[in-house]
Amino acid sequence: MASKYFKELPQAYLLQILTWYTRFMRTRTFRRGRQPTIGPWGILALIVGGILCAFTVGNLIVGNRSLAVWLPAIAGAPLLLYGIFKDACDRWFETRSGRILRWIIMALYLVLIAVMIFSSVLMISAASSEPAAGADAIVVLGAGVHGDAVTDSLRKRLDKALEYYNQNPGAVIVVTGGMGSGENVSEAEAMQKYLAERSVPSDHILV
């Protein structure tokens, strides 16, 4: 149920933002006596910013409160604000200090995009390659806990670790992660329980 809601949340959240913005634009006027215009860049900023913020909100609702969850909202909030107050921002960007800040913001977003592309390439490359057999340890990083149960993303990590362990039973599985808000146990304890329930000996699980 939560996963279904999460999939529908970005569209519903974005639609609500656009509806609110349309009403806002109809009632707002500038002192110059002209109606504000959003333009294609403003629409694009609203869409991208709304999707990024909705991703963070969706993860928070389903209980994932790790630091990485906040990064899309941090990147999306300035875009959302720019789309809402585009005319005022554009006028300020025409000033000397505004031009400097605009170039700084653009540079930061370009760096962010480059880092995301580079990280995605590394993750895709790593995911498509088979790990070498005969490793001494399998390290599983935490990815959130609901109460005392692992999240879907953490379950997939554990299942992948189990798959490798079954092929290499001499390896030790190292589970990591602390306890955050809304979690009754630490991520490591939840993972230890998950693995123990799947017949992994306790001496092969290192917390």
Explain what you see.
The chain is built from 7 helices and 5 strands, in the order αααααβββαβαβ. With 207 residues, the protein is mainly alpha-helical. Strands 1-4-5 form a 3-stranded parallel β-sheet. It has a two-stranded antiparallel ribbon with strand order 2-3.
Ordered list of secondary-structure elements with their pairings:
Blueprint: H1 2-27, H2 39-61, H3 67-84, H4 86-93, H5 96-128, E1 137-140, E2 145-146, E3 149-150, H6 152-167, E4 172-175, H7 187-196, E5 205-206
Parallel strand pairs: 1-4, 4-5
Antiparallel strand pairs: 2-3
Helix pairs in contact: 1-2, 2-3
* Class of secondary structure makeup: mainly alpha
**Shape, principal axes of CA atoms:** elongated
- If you average the pLDDT, what whole number results? 77
What radius of gyration results from the CA coordinates? 23 Å
The biggest beta sheet, please? Answer: 3 strands, parallel
- What is the helical fraction, as a range of percent? 55-70%
Number of DSSP helical runs: 7
Q: How big a fraction of the residues is strand?
A: 5-15%
What order do the SSEs take from the amino end to the carboxyl end, as H and E?
HHHHHEEEHEHE
Top keywords for this entry?
207 residues; mainly alpha; three-stranded parallel β-sheet; two-stranded antiparallel sheet; 7 helices; 5 strands; disordered N terminus
Short description:
65% of the residues lie in helices and 7% in strands.
